[in-house]
# Entry
Amino acid sequence: MLVQSREKVKSTPFSEFVRNGSAKEKRKFFDKVIKETVAIQRAMIEESKACR
# Structure
């Protein structure tokens, strides 16, 4: 069985962070992203309730 090698693509700062960041750094980053996303979703829900 032959395995095709993946095509190499340019690395991005985000991919470097995911590969090389500590668990603590990643946790802090993703906690922030989740909090912001939840706030946006809550605002959308409130806006949709106001439109009814």
Notes: The chain has a mean pLDDT of 93. The chain is about 70% helix and 0% strand.
